[in-house]
Design brief:
This protein is an alpha+beta fold and 138 residues long. It has helices spanning 11-22, 39-49, 76-85; strands at 3-6, 28-31, 94-97, 100-103, 122-123, 129-131. The two termini are 26 Å apart.
Length: 138
């Protein structure tokens, strides 16, 4: 099972989803802006990624500055509460598979945790080649 926490308005998220599908898998797509993960699920994802809570915070295009989230006074618990209340603060895409969980920035990070190889050549939306015609990473 492959799950992607996806924002269709984000190019990196769209490229990651396309790479998953290029491996022959149709993932569970969670539109986290419409259906935010619970605090417990968010904590589990971050723990599984083995990264700090702050590494999941997105600054650009979010209320990060208005909420003063750079301030070190905020605990991990506080930051999780902010992400649950304002899911746009969650960096994306996050992908979970049986092989691990990753914040897929850049999108090709997803290749590290996909259970199946790539089936065809793949270029990102901007034309950057990622997978060649033999299904190998460029």
């Amino acid at each position: 099972m492959v799950t992607i926490f996806h924002n269709p308005g984000c190019g990196t998220s769209r490229n990651t989803l396309a790479l998953i599908r290029n491996s022959g898998v149709e993932p569970e797509v969670v539109l986290y802006l419409e259906v935010p993960p619970s605090k417990n699920l968010l904590m589990k994802l971050i723990k599984d990624m083995d990264i700090p809570v702050r590494a999941v915070l997105r600054e650009k295009g979010t209320p990060y500055a208005e909420l003063d989230l750079a301030n070190p006074k905020w605990t991990d618990e506080d930051l999780l509460d902010f992400m649950v209340a304002h899911p746009i603060l969650m960096n994306r895409p996050i992908v979970a598979t049986g092989l691990g969980t990753k914040l897929c920035r850049p999108s090709e990070v997803v290749l590290e945790i996909l259970p199946n190889p790539q089936r065809a050549a793949f270029n990102k939306e901007d034309g950057e080649p990622v997978i060649n015609e033999k299904g190998l990473r460029v």
